Structure prediction request, 470 residues.
Amino acid sequence: MNFHVLTLFPEMILQGGQTSILGRAIKNGYITLNAVDIRDYTESKHKKVDDYPYGGGAGMLMQAQPVYDAYQAVSKKLESGKARVIYLTPQGRTFEQKMAEELSKEKDIVFLCGHYEGIDERVLEEIVTDYVSVGDYVLTGGELPAMVMIDAISRLVPGVLNNDTSADFETFHNDLLEYPQYSRPEEWKGKSVPQVLLSGNHTKIAEWRLEQSIRRTKERRPDLYDKYKKKQQVIEKLLKKDKFLYIDMIESLRRGRGELIYNKEGGVVVKDGDAGIYMLAAFDSVTAEEIADTILYENETGQFLVHQECLLKSMEKRFRIEEAFPIKHAVYTQRVPLSVSKEITFTPLGIDYLEEVMEHYHIVPDEAYIKERLLSGNIIGAFIEDRLAGFVGIHKEGSLGILEVYEAYRRKGVAASLEAYMINRQLSCGYIPYGDVLTSNEASLHLQEKLGLCISKEILFWVELNGYLC
Prediction:
């Protein structure tokens, strides 16, 4: 990801980006940080960039010309050819974690930092795409808000954090505040570490942490607690309907990734924020028609998980369907880790394995997708005597997949060990492991049953839409 900051004080930006996680991310090439001095683009020989506002008023106003020319210089160098241009202002939409997640998917972002009494409205109308505030207070300029946003966005870029799960278990995960944490010594000033954290019982620890997060959120952020409760009510509804059929929606909500788009008696629509995939459930044909008429008409392209055939038929009447794959969910409902072969070494594959993974895995032939999965540490390789025997991964929406075993190592238990390893990894995160299996893939279905996963009785569909029917 590339950050470009239009500013009168580039040293503030560059110095702030040289240390800690940001500095390491820049050094390793996961992000770039480009500070552009607006004064370099003024036509004034005295480097003047401000003037008095028309109509009078206190203070000075940044002029349109140097801001516009600075932006033009940056826009010519954008890798993506275009970028979101964010003006930091108290008048903008409040920055929060969901926005950070949204912006982390961009290739280039340009930040415009104002000073004095602001910036000439005409250049804002010309170049700005987003007006963003970091809070209801006034600062001397936009540099500090820009750095706050850069920090929050960067840590969501694949590869920036060493621990790929660390961004998932902290403040605002699943609309809950982070649980209290403790380090050595075991006792300090008469206060002891809670005994459950010393027990080694990871199930009990996870339960205690969730309980503490709920309690803390209810006390300190009742607004977030209300959002959490609404999601829990939907999860309960889906669990009662069919746990195995709706496990994708349940887990997306449980993991704090899912956003409720539609929730009525007759159906539910969840958007997985990380993957951008819509998960659709209609419990009757009337609701299926309503979902197709309202939700889908605003999102007529992209990938959808459709849980009923009546919904698929409603979509077929309105949209061009590129693909519709019938699948079943395979769900691991136990909490006991599975055994894996001791002869196999499991290691996250880095970006240097991109070409090899693309050569062997053909179900998702999207190089950018596989690159992101590798960078985020979500593809695990199985090595036997230092040779790569196969790999397995986690898809963006959270399901197990990307499983491939090389020909020379097939029928030797490598596939079972790979999937078992990834199931154990999911269990350690407190997740319910699940995968999507094509109904025609009998070998994979057999593998899931052999490992003890439960197969959904009902069929659902992976659907790709490509616009409206004429």
User: Anything to note?
Assistant: The radius of gyration is 25 Å. The mean pLDDT is 93. The domain at 345-431 is CATH 3.40.630.30 (Aminopeptidase). The first helix runs from residue 10 to 16.
